[in-house]
Specification:
Blueprint: E1 11-18, H1 74-78, E2 86-91, H2 94-114, H3 120-127, H4 131-159, H5 161-179, H6 188-203, H7 208-216, H8 222-247, H9 255-283, H10 294-299, H11 309-318, H12 320-350, H13 355-383, H14 386-407, H15 413-427, H16 430-442, H17 447-475, H18 478-497, H19 504-510
Antiparallel strand pairs: 1-2
Helix pairs in contact: 2-5, 2-6, 2-8, 2-9, 3-4, 4-5, 4-6, 4-17, 5-6, 5-9, 7-8, 7-17, 8-13, 8-16, 12-13, 12-16, 12-17, 12-18, 13-15, 13-16, 14-15, 14-16, 14-18, 16-17, 17-18
Length: 526
């Protein structure tokens, strides 16, 4: 059907969720303070405050408790809409366009992150600075994220998805245009400032994949949607590995030609990012008219004025499985950031003059990871085996990094291409797994908050790993730096094995309502 306002709805499945009557209050659910739960019942209102139409066709059968002998926990019952109404769920056609536009401007942001590092030797000559100063053009992305993530996730929860998306895409375009003013050897401070603006834009981008997937996509496609959203960022990194070495060849004896080539890359990026900013303003809406899943319908029953961001943060840090995932995700993703940043230095150490092939190896690493991301997303939607899949991918990433480390200096680039592809398939494929696993074990907490904290952990570990691995690579060898990362990934395997798999969102969507779905889990991790 076509909604009032022009949006087309009712693609694919639709359904209804029966309401529970006289539901007890839910304590600390989704960051809501005790005693502030909705009173008087009533069903969830769609975006814009419109009254939902009565559900067409025959009503769905009521959800039966999994174990008749055991009554549903009060917390679980409180998660159902109250007042005897029914909540209709539908899928919006607009969700595909929203996902596509987000993936594209996330792609450009990732491209701007890696475009300096993959040409570290070129930019070091152009700006007349050291390799360490060029590395900071990548590290600034990680440094900016850590202090800004809490304000950014608060903004996402308090002001919504549309404003956050506009800030991310708008700052991305602004940073790209500022870079166009740094096309002279004396302007390293300006290009650093421009990169810092892009780094701030990233804060409003990295936390959105799981939120977009949950708000716009149904339960049978949410993990795949999250993987596609993450894939956009990975594709940007892949293009950032491939395109800059082609656009900006190393011409140390002709700085004017080098400046001309860099200008083509900078102006092209600025034009594309500006177009995507305008598309974001046209396409993005706060949420679809109807919730796409029962778990989203449940969250709509809570009035926004009762939400406490501080309480949500406290709940997450009291959730032991989430804290374990927070550390293990940071280790894996920080390792990926470090390897991506230092790949050019590692390759040219053993294969002098192979800057273009260094970019191609980076492309191979990320493209393989994109395939891994999609496969993992489809697998999770089909099996819901979050912990098992996460642990297996973690172990295979460890093995992949070991093989990459000990084959890097054999003198055969084809071997590095193969081992880099295997490493990327598992390491980059892990990224959406961590997002979706976090949403499952922290439901009904905000997806933006949990994914924002995961990314903050990744940035912190990324900064530390990049600086330490860079020092080890410069002073000793790339092998020393990679072995340092291997040791940390082994620690991550142990932490992942200790995570208790409590799939709360899946339980709500499946109608298993006799589970304890409080935001704070027990201390047990096994």
């Amino acid at each position: 059907m076509v909604e009032d306002g022009g949006e087309e709805e009712a693609e694919g499945e639709s359904g209804e969720m029966p309401a529970a009557t006289a539901a007890p209050a839910l304590q600390r659910c989704n960051g809501f303070l005790p005693g502030k739960e909705a009173a008087g019942g009533g069903r969830a209102a769609p975006a814009g405050g419109e009254e939902q139409p009565a559900a067409p066709a025959a009503p769905a059968a009521p959800i039966a408790p999994a174990a008749p002998a055991a009554p549903a926990a009060p917390e679980a019952e409180a998660m159902l809409p109250t007042g005897g109404g029914r909540v209709e769920t539908r899928l919006s056609r607009r969700r595909i366009v929203v996902l596509a536009v987000f993936s594209c401007y996330s792609l450009v942001n990732a491209f701007q992150w890696i475009q300096y590092s993959i040409l570290s030797n070129v930019f070091a000559v152009f700006y007349g600075v050291s390799f360490t100063q060029i590395d900071w053009l990548s590290v600034v992305y990680m440094v900016a994220y850590v202090p800004l993530i809490l304000p950014a996730t608060w903004l996402l929860d308090a002001r919504g998805l549309r404003l956050t998306a506009l800030l991310g895409s708008g700052l991305n375009a602004l940073g790209a245009w500022l870079k166009c003013g740094s096309l002279a050897p004396q302007r390293y401070p300006l290009t650093l400032a421009a990169q810092t603006v892009c780094a701030v834009a990233q804060v409003f981008i990295l936390g959105l994949p799981s939120r977009i997937a949950s708000v716009w996509f149904g339960p049978t496609e949410v993990s795949t949607a999250c993987a596609v959203a993450v894939l956009g960022n990975q594709l940007g990194t892949a293009i950032g590995f491939l395109l800059p070495p082609v656009l900006v060849p190393n011409t140390p004896n002709d700085i004017d030609l080098m400046a001309h080539n860099i200008s083509i890359m900078f102006y092209g990026t600025a034009i594309v990012s500006t177009l995507l900013f305008f598309l974001t303003g046209v396409v993005f809406e706060e949420k679809p008219k109807y919730p796409p899943s029962h778990s989203q319908a449940v969250l709509l029953t809570k009035p926004p004025e009762d939400y406490s961001y501080k309480q949500s943060i406290i709940n997450l840090f009291k959730n032991t499985p989430f804290v374990l995932l927070l550390i293990s995700y940071g280790i894996m993703t920080g390792t990926f950031y470090s390897v991506s940043t230092l790949l050019n230095q590692m390759i040219v150490t053993h294969y002098e003059g192979e800057e273009v092939n260094a970019g191609r190896i980076g492309l191979t690493l990320v493209v393989a990871g994109m395939v891994g991301s999609i496969i993992c997303g489809l697998w999770l939607d089909y099996t819901k085996t979050y912990k098992q899949t996460t642990l297996i991918v973690y172990i295979l990433s460890f093995i992949g990094l070991l093989v990459f480390t000990f084959t890097l200096d054999l003198g055969y680039l084809i071997v590095v291409f193969v081992t880099g592809g295997v490493l990327g398939f598992f390491m980059t494929g892990y990224l959406p797994l961590g997002f979706e696993f976090a949403v499952e074990i922290t439901y009904p907490e905000s997806e933006g908050t949990s994914s924002g904290l995961l990314n903050a952990s990744a940035q912190i570990f990324g900064i530390l790993f990049t600086l330490v691995q860079g020092k080890l690579t410069t002073d000793y060898s790339p092998r020393a730096g990679n072995l340092f990362l291997c040791a940390w990934i082994f620690v991550g395997i142990i932490l992942t094995a200790l995570i208790k798999s409590d799939l709360r969102r899946h339980s709500v969507n499946s109608g298993i309502m006799n589970l304890d779905v409080k935001a704070v889990s027990g201390d047990s991790v096994i």
